[in-house]
Specification:
single chain; mainly alpha; MetI-like fold; two-stranded antiparallel ribbon; 4 strands
Length: 336
């Protein structure tokens, strides 16, 4: 007969006291397995988080090292010069920097009102049977390859600009007297590049703006209407201010897309190495310089100059996005 054992003041038969031990061991094994799984999960997510800035630093380092010979030889003159002469080995990217910034910001001026207006219509005014198809068609623009946009611009957009839009702006509205619309209408121009960029970044801004507007609490709308506001006053005074920081985030996303766009812009901007105040004149961007020149580079210095152009584009993109992120932070802080 089994000897009784005493456990916490209770007399328990010895055979029954040993019974829970296997269950406790199994529970300990399960807990240990969970702890190992948690550690592996933390290690994996940490590695993924660290990999992103490491990739960024690696890209910057590789491009910077390849660009150093040109940057060392030309110094700040590389950023301020308009020369691009492979025979004389003189290189400068001032027109490309100018074209990149002007075409991107002009595209934002065109695309942002259209995208935000479409988002407000879809979230506040459109009936349910219209909302989903129109939103799908807008999002579909983001899936079209840039070379298709470029071909469409060559065969459709440029003839319309040459034959209708530019004569209307220059002659009918008499904007030709200003330096911004002076000169002959070639077709390929800064204006054409800005228009095709505006079409390409519109779905990005519209998608983010639509999701942000849908996330505005219903109570925000009902409170404005209860105070006697019309629907437009409700949208203008309650919905858009609440979603302002998110809309600016969508604009930043579109700006990043515009700064780095290559193929469509290369096909319609004209690719001329000069700075002109006229939007009707051909221009250049940093991305189109690299796309046009890289396959024809014959010397190490020219290759280094192209890598330096890529490094400048990398820095410009970082600076513009950092400034835009600061603007989002400031806007959100003021709204709070």
């Amino acid at each position: 007969m089994a000897e009784p054992s005493q456990q916490r003041g209770v007399v328990v038969p010895a055979g029954e006291a040993a019974a829970p031990a296997p269950r406790a061991r199994r529970r300990a094994v399960r807990l240990q397995g969970r702890r190992i799984g948690d550690r592996l999960y933390v290690i994996g997510t940490t590695a993924a988080a660290v990999a992103v800035p490491l990739m960024l630093l690696t890209i910057a380092l590789i491009i910077g090292v390849a660009a150093w010979p040109a940057l060392h030889r030309f110094g700040l003159g590389f950023l301020t010069s308009s020369d691009w002469d492979p025979v004389a080995e003189r290189y400068g990217v001032a027109p490309a920097i100018y074209g990149t910034l002007v075409s991107s910001f002009l595209a934002l001026l065109i695309a942002t009102p259209l995208a935000v207006g479409a988002s407000v219509f879809l979230t506040e005014y459109a009936p349910a049977w219209v909302r989903r198809p129109v939103a799908f068609l807008i999002d579909l623009l983001a899936a079209i390859p840039s070379v298709i946009f470029g071909l469409w611009a060559i065969f459709v957009l440029l003839p319309i600009l040459r034959g209708t839009v530019i004569p209307f702006l220059r002659d009918t509205l008499h904007l030709g007297a200003t330096p911004f619309f002076s000169g002959p209408a070639y077709g390929p121009s800064m204006l054409a590049a800005a228009l095709i960029l505006a079409i390409m970044i519109l779905p990005y801004i519209a998608a983010v703006s639509r999701e942000v507007l849908l996330a505005v609490p219903r109570s925000q709308r009902e409170a404005a209407l209860a105070l006697g506001a019309t629907q437009w006053e409700m949208v203008r005074g309650a919905v858009i201010p609440f979603a302002r920081s998110g809309i600016i985030g969508g604009v930043i996303l579109g700006l990043g897309r515009a700064l780095g766009e290559t193929m469509a812009v290369t096909m319609v901007i004209g690719n001329r190495q000069e700075i002109s105040a006229s939007l009707l004149a051909p221009g250049y961007t940093l991305a189109s310089v690299i796309a046009n020149q890289f396959a024809e580079a014959t010397s190490n210095l020219q290759l280094s100059a192209l890598m330096a152009a890529g490094f400048v584009l990398f820095v410009v993109t970082l600076l513009v996005n950092a400034g835009a992120r600061w603007l989002v932070w400031r806007t959100a802080r003021m709204g709070a």
